[in-house]
Amino acid sequence: MRPIISFLFLLLNLSCTAIADSLLKKHWYQQGDRWLNDKVQFLEASIKTQSDTPDNAAAKNIILFIGDGMSITTLTAARIWQGQQQGLLGEEHFLHFETFPYTALIKTYNSNQQTPDSAGTMSAIMTGVKTRAGVISMGPEQDRTDCKGSAQHNQKTLLEWGYEQNFDTGIVTTARLTHATPAATYAHSPDRVWEGDYDRHLNAYWYGCDSIAKQLIEGAFPAGLDLALGGGASRLENYYDSFQQQFPAGHLLNNQRDLLEWNTATQPQSEDGPVLGVFSSEHMDFEMDRRREQPSLQQMTQKAIEYFEGRNKNYLLVIESARIDHAHHNGNAARALAETAMLADSVQLADDMTKDDDTLIIVTADHSHTFVMAGYPKRGNSILGISKNQKNEVVLANDGMPYTSLGYANGKASGRKESTEHFASSEDKNFHQEVGIALPLETHGSDDVALHAKGPGAYLFSGLMEQNEIFHTMLQALSRADMSAEDSQ
Ligand SMILES: [Zn+2]
């Protein structure tokens, strides 16, 4: 009797496996032709890109997108997340900029740290010189927090170069406008924390280092910065009067309605009236929690490009999705992925609004995070969900508990939760992924980040590059514009 029962079980087991297998195979076979087509399409696009882009193609404008903390794993997980939001399995999806023809890997270390911070990395991208963690657009000989004699170490930023060359220039961010990444585009400071006047240390007062807020309003705007959109009223509002006195024709925006009602064709009337939009007291909200009075990154991107495209001058625009970094520091993958997807949609809009033959679009990150995606989840497994195998069974760890495919190598200690209910909420936006090493906050990673590029000069980005080379490569793409302008005179 017993062998017969065993045999029946075996048969049942085999037929279940066979059904699961055939469903999977059906899926793969349906896609079978597509894999071949994709390959052909990719090659056709590559060959077309090569033939469409002459070596002397000139960049008139550059739009540089920075995903703060947007590691390569963040890209993989975000593309699956966005694909699954659209009803796909996910893995086959591309974020918009992942279809760009040119890519490079970027080494992110600071001059004094193996694992970098945003101040040092963005300074490298903006000035062409790697520097110390915490230092804003000054050379590596500058000690952090030492104001005395520091001005001699200032390094000219891409936007400052742009003021001199009569480019329109702008910065858009979802962080405080005085935060490290945006600050490195227009300011110089021995310490990133000197954002507002009262954030400065005593030696900054004593030796005369201005706050980053003051440098924006009374330094960068008069020197030629045309547009700044982001958060950080807590540091900037003391300077609103100064802004309006200096620039009676300038434009000050305070909320989403101000931004959307801004007629970029008629305001500001005069060349010497810059645009300042400050939409929150501190950083702007995460996209998943965004209050209606705040614009999205995409809305800010649209207005900034509309404005610059309408002015008929060459322009340099830096756009930062700042809060990918903050979500990762909190060990919260859901918000990090949503912020990355919003960045991708903003890039797509920028691509749609500009011409491929005059605008170089670059998308990169300042540094990585300890974010990991692992295990053997089945194809199409919910990216925020617990790991399930090919048979759709929950995979258990050594302690008998489920686990998510996303996690962090370090961060806020949550410990292994001892109830399966904990994992039932893994797709909730407030879920915190598990961590390997307990620290007060998750840290940056030291690994390389990706760079994607499209447009004139994009082909110059390839292979493994030092982060400061991004600056020199952008100038190269632009100097071609100068050369061709001279030729035509
Ligand atoms: Zn960070």
TrEMBL record:
Active site positions: 118 (phosphoserine intermediate)
Matching Gene3D superfamilies: Alkaline Phosphatase, subunit A
Enzyme class, broadest EC rank: hydrolase
Cofactor: Zn(2+); Mg(2+)
Binding site for Mg(2+): 68, 179, 181, 320
Residues involved in Zn(2+) binding: 68, 325, 329, 366-367, 444
Family: Belongs to the alkaline phosphatase family.
Record protein name field: Alkaline phosphatase family protein
Source organism of the structure: Oleispira antarctica RB-8
Higher taxonomy: Bacteria, Pseudomonadati, Pseudomonadota, Gammaproteobacteria, Oceanospirillales
